Amino acid sequence: MKKSIGAKTFAMPAPVWVVGTYGANGEPNIMTAAWGGICCSTPPCVAVSLQKIRASYDNIIKRKAFTVSIPSKKFISEADFAGMVSGKDADKFAAAGLTAVKSELVDAPYVQEFPLILECKLVHTIEIGLHTQFIGEIVDVKAEEAVLGDNGLPVLGKVDPFSYSPPERLYYGVGQSVGQAYSLGLKFKK
Q1: Which residue range or ranges hold the Flavin reductase like domain (predicted)?
Q2: Is residue 7 assigned to a domain?
């Protein structure tokens, strides 16, 4: 039997994304965001939801762009730090020993050390409540060659990302493959 625990933000797992923006004076900034995901395939888009009090909120509004840098487990401490300190108070790139790279396609920086990067131009802003959802069209994906498979596309196990469990406030590694998508369910198809 299921027990009601109320309306909570317990979709599991949540991604661990590091959103890159430029501040008012052109300073690179990053913040860790867990409220995000793919929201359209054509054009390819992602959505991230941020509170108005975040430095990244104003940066996205002003620059109309952001990046999503997806960290590997190797950089779990750096990603965690980027979500603990405000860009209004610290240079998070310098403090975490990360390298800011200026995107050639959008007005935002990304994290050199992280294996997978989504460069996004802002296409929609949706006021929801405490959070504002920013929808960014992905104008390019950059990946370290080491994380690409034989088909030239990223392989989850090579990217080695991690996820966030909101109710526990814990990070989890991504496990092994458990089956081929669009194949396992064929046994139910008539």
Answers
A1: 12-164
A2: no
